[in-house]
């Protein structure tokens, strides 16, 4: 994926970033692409040096006069750092990128902090691995960036924070802290727990069982590789909304388990079918590429496990005037080929299949098979 292309930066002056982990360093990289002066600060000297060495920005100076401060620190110290930065730079706009918005705001209000120039925000972007070494400029492209304004927020301050999101290729969305925390509980925090719980079942599983693992279980448990230390803080700060979703999910699981205890009982098979169907309906509501609700068909192509084959496949799809909307790769253990699941618009399926088969590719399946 290419770096975000921005014609003119909406963010001006110096941007101070406190915290040089994945999000902080990634913001630094993306801003520097746009020619913005980025000053980095971190309580960890080694993390700071690493972010600077990778090009995320320069070391912050006591003489800096930032127009925007981005706080990108762990949730348990977010409120402390916001308070400090507001006091140190009273004329700067201060935002944070913590994944929980209500708890830091409550803490700051209880302390009586002047929040005139504070706007909470949260880019819905990330990777399974953290740290400056994993940072990249393009992780925000096409992702939502929640901005939590209030009645006291000035239009100028709001424009600066939303301009940051736009400069990084994200899509700013205004939400209240309460709505944000309930939303991320459902689409981010509970999925992390579900993935971790399922992956935890693998610890004592026989090796033979795990050798059967395909792409489905890898997709389901991908985020289980996330850092426990960070997630303990996130889940603790957003506990109530997470518990609400977990209670509903636990009831759903209990219902399915009851049905499967006696699959031949009246209504049992319907209960299972309704569960799967409801999942179908839920997936259909998820936004697709570029946030659209447009749906795609899948063409699965067998690809030899040799250098250059994927490049050749993409090149020949381009010659067929077929755009690849999404791609998933699956490798079977011991097999000398992989399966490339290519998402295309429905009108391009037949053109893709016929054209690829004419060029010698083997089509494993399509959506309608």
Automatic annotation (TrEMBL):
<dbReference type="InterPro" id="IPR050812">
    <property type="entry name" value="Preph/Arog_dehydrog"/>
</dbReference>
<dbReference type="InterPro" id="IPR008927">
    <property type="entry name" value="6-PGluconate_DH-like_C_sf"/>
</dbReference>
<feature type="domain" description="ACT">
    <location>
        <begin position="298"/>
        <end position="369"/>
    </location>
</feature>
<keyword id="KW-0560">Oxidoreductase</keyword>
<feature type="domain" description="Prephenate/arogenate dehydrogenase">
    <location>
        <begin position="13"/>
        <end position="290"/>
    </location>
</feature>
<protein>
    <recommendedName>
        <fullName>Prephenate dehydrogenase</fullName>
        <ecNumber>1.3.1.12</ecNumber>
    </recommendedName>
</protein>
<dbReference type="Pfam" id="PF02153">
    <property type="entry name" value="PDH_N"/>
</dbReference>
<keyword id="KW-0520">NAD</keyword>
<dbReference type="InterPro" id="IPR003099">
    <property type="entry name" value="Prephen_DH"/>
</dbReference>
<keyword id="KW-0028">Amino-acid biosynthesis</keyword>
<comment type="similarity">
    <text>Belongs to the prephenate/arogenate dehydrogenase family.</text>
</comment>
<dbReference type="InterPro" id="IPR045865">
    <property type="entry name" value="ACT-like_dom_sf"/>
</dbReference>
<comment type="pathway">
    <text>Amino-acid biosynthesis; L-tyrosine biosynthesis; (4-hydroxyphenyl)pyruvate from prephenate (NAD(+) route): step 1/1.</text>
</comment>
<keyword id="KW-0057">Aromatic amino acid biosynthesis</keyword>
<dbReference type="InterPro" id="IPR046825">
    <property type="entry name" value="PDH_C"/>
</dbReference>
<dbReference type="InterPro" id="IPR046826">
    <property type="entry name" value="PDH_N"/>
</dbReference>
<dbReference type="InterPro" id="IPR036291">
    <property type="entry name" value="NAD(P)-bd_dom_sf"/>
</dbReference>
<dbReference type="Pfam" id="PF20463">
    <property type="entry name" value="PDH_C"/>
</dbReference>
<keyword id="KW-0827">Tyrosine biosynthesis</keyword>
<dbReference type="InterPro" id="IPR002912">
    <property type="entry name" value="ACT_dom"/>
</dbReference>
<dbReference type="GO" id="GO:0008977">
    <property type="term" value="F:prephenate dehydrogenase (NAD+) activity"/>
</dbReference>
